[in-house]
Every structure is written in structure tokens, then in C-alpha cells.
Specification:
The chain is mainly alpha-helical. The protein folds into 2 domains: about 50 residues, Arc Repressor Mutant, subunit A (Orthogonal Bundle), CATH 1.10.10; about 130 residues, Tetracycline Repressor, domain 2 (Orthogonal Bundle), CATH 1.10.357.10. It contains 10 helices and no strands. Helix 1 packs across helix 4, helix 4 runs parallel beside helix 8 and helix 8 packs across helix 9. About 25% of the residues are buried.
């Protein structure tokens, strides 16, 4: 994956934010600068301009802080692509493909995969994370709504949502291994869109 520098446009908006968001911003900056292994709660406190105990009162350790940071980051990516307008299959397809594209180039995600890929492994092999649960909930709700409108094929909407998420994992994590002079990233995203449409078609 391509390295990405700081991009302030990816940061959450500063309006109506709690102090906790500022601490998460500081942790994000640390990870972008030096990676997860070298980021400490003490350094997060220094960058946030607060005492170390202030950070410790919110998060007892770095894994807990990272969990909240990743949930905030990925949930923001997901909700950016949720739409209530248009035919159900179009909405679901655009939402999944748009989320995959944005996540694949999200600077925090890229940095973690480059320097500390083991942080991602539990969510692929052991358990679902909070952001994955959010994706599944939104997708299952959209599938169920499409079924009620007779725009999406019958079937267990939860199972359909989980199958789509499993397919999307490869397009987030491994698409770069399939890009060369014959096939572009856009070509593969078009195939993902086709896969989703055919999966959902009545």
C-alpha cells in the first residue's frame, strides 16, 4: 500500500466536539508519526496538552484507546456512505463500494497495515469489532428494507450482510495484490459492484 501523509481533511470536524475527541486526535497523530508500537499514553497526553492522569482516567491502556480510535475512524467512513435515497440495490452497492474505496486509502488504516498489521488480524480471524458490527447492522437493515420493497431477493438479511462484508474484506486488504498493467483498482471496484448487484438481485 502507498504511504500517506497527514491529511487534515480526514479528521473529524471540530464543531461540537468533546475533549475526548481531542485526545483521540492526539493518539491518531502519534500513530501516523511513529506507529502503534512506539505510541504511549504519556505521549498522547503530551500531544493533547493534558496530564497523563487525564488520559489514564479515560483509557487504562493503549489497546483500549486504539479500540475507540478505530471505532471512531471506521464508523465515520461507513456513515459517510449511508444513503436513504434511490433503489435499494443502488444504495447498498454504492455504500459498500464507497466505503471500501475510502477505507482502503484512509491514512490511519494504511499506516496501521504498513507498520502494525497484527492489530488488524483479530478482526479477521477471531472476532468482530464495533465498526464491523455497525456495518453489518446498517447493511442488514438496508437489505431487509429492500426485501420489503421487493427490490432485493429473499433470504436472511443478516446472512446476506455478513457475506457482503466477507467479500469486502478482500477488496480492502488485498486489492493491491491484484492490480497490474492488465487490471486497475477501478476495474476491480467495478467487479465488486457487479458482485453485490448480482448477489442482491431478485
Amino acid at each position: 500500500m502507498t504511504s500517506l501523509r497527514h491529511n487534515t481533511s480526514e479528521r473529524p470536524a471540530s464543531v461540537d466536539r468533546e475533549p475526548r475527541d481531542g485526545y483521540l486526535d492526539a493518539a491518531r497523530d502519534c500513530i501516523l508519526d511513529v506507529g502503534w508500537r512506539r505510541t504511549t499514553l504519556t505521549e498522547v497526553a503530551r500531544r493533547a496538552g493534558v496530564s497523563r492522569m487525564t488520559i489514564y482516567r479515560t483509557w487504562p491502556d493503549m489497546p483500549t484507546l486504539l479500540g475507540d480510535l478505530m471505532t471512531r475512524e471506521w464508523a465515520g467512513v461507513v456513515t459517510d456512505h449511508v444513503s436513504a435515497e434511490g433503489p435499494a440495490i443502488d444504495r447498498i452497492t454504492d455504500g459498500v463500494v464507497g466505503t471500501v474505496r475510502q477505507l482502503r486509502h484512509n491514512e490511519l488504516f494504511v499506516r496501521i497495515v504498513e507498520l502494525d498489521p497484527e492489530l488488524i488480524l483479530p478482526y479477521l480471524f477471531s472476532r468482530r469489532g464495533r465498526s464491523q458490527e455497525l456495518i453489518l447492522q446498517l447493511t442488514a437493515e438496508a437489505v431487509a428494507a429492500g426485501q420489503r420493497a421487493e427490490e432485493v431477493r429473499p433470504g436472511n438479511p443478516v446472512a446476506i450482510a455478513r457475506a457482503l462484508l466477507l467479500a469486502a474484506h478482500g477488496f480492502v486488504l488485498s486489492v493491491h495484490t491484484m492490480v497490474d498493467d492488465e487490471v486497475s483498482e477501478d476495474d476491480l471496484d467495478a467487479e465488486l459492484a457487479l458482485l453485490i448487484r448480482r448477489t442482491l438481485a431478485p
